[in-house]
């Protein structure tokens, strides 16, 4: 290798080209430039640095500099400049291709990981490449904002930098999917996901949902679906708070497990509200806010921008139409469950 850091194959033919240029003063031909670009690509693919590649060609130039050249030295230097430019172009092209291939492999892995359906053994092997060990238990947090996000967006990079700066690698994966920010991290302790939730909410101004912790690749899919369902449920139910935990919302899937029974409860309990002036909407909203306020009339009236007297009149109207008194503990439970069911089933906008 005559003192050079690279094998001879990466500088092969260059000394002869240099000698010919020194006697003729010509520029490098297309074939010669293509050979240097190919050398740059092969060096990048073999894992050699661009600095080593250029230094190897400078060494050949110094060792092979013609002592009796008929062409001026500028011709040799121009040829060297062309060669280095071609080397760098080929090297960069190989690097860009490698980055695109890596991005494609990462995206394919994320799709397989979050949707399931891939061979679990192969998925586990690929997961280690991206810092996850599927033998451990993981949870998934999903953040959505007013716009869609991609991994190259400043918002995603800001959250990534905050997480890495705080926790280092820590076997976590931050990515995007369908415009949402997604963090997959060990479920215990939950400090990584809690920190992600705070940073993502600050960066997006949106809402974050955290799925429960489950083991294995199938557990990641389940936790991801729980987080998505929590976001959808929060939108439908008008739930407050920037951070939602699927574990705190388990009552809602239970209530809708028998959809037909819930629909019957909503129709039979709240159906008479349709007879009210303006339809069922205003009285249904009154009940929802009243229950959300802990059945405190003054607080419910404040949230509805009503007087306490007007709120009391509405509650009395509900009692009159439905026969259920919101102030009665037994009736209150039935009404509250029916109101939750109405939100979940989008009644009265949707017929049951």
Describe the structure.
This protein is an alpha+beta fold. It has 14 helices and six strands. Strands 1, 2, 3, 4, 5 and 6 form a six-stranded mixed β-sheet that branches. α10 (259-270) crosses α14 and α11 (281-292) packs across α12 (297-304). The longest helix has 43 residues, at 73-115. It starts with 13 loop residues before the first helix and ends in an 8-residue tail after the last helix. The model has no long low-confidence stretch (mean pLDDT 86).
Topology, pairings included?
Layout: H1 14-24, H2 30-45, H3 50-64, H4 73-115, H5 120-129, E1 137-144, H6 154-167, E2 173-177, E3 180-186, H7 191-204, E4 207-210, E5 214-215, H8 216-237, E6 243-245, H9 251-255, H10 259-270, H11 281-292, H12 297-304, H13 308-322, H14 329-344
Parallel strand pairs: 4-6
Antiparallel strand pairs: 1-3, 1-4, 1-5, 2-3
Helix pairs in contact: 1-3, 2-4, 3-4, 6-7, 10-14, 11-12, 11-14, 12-13
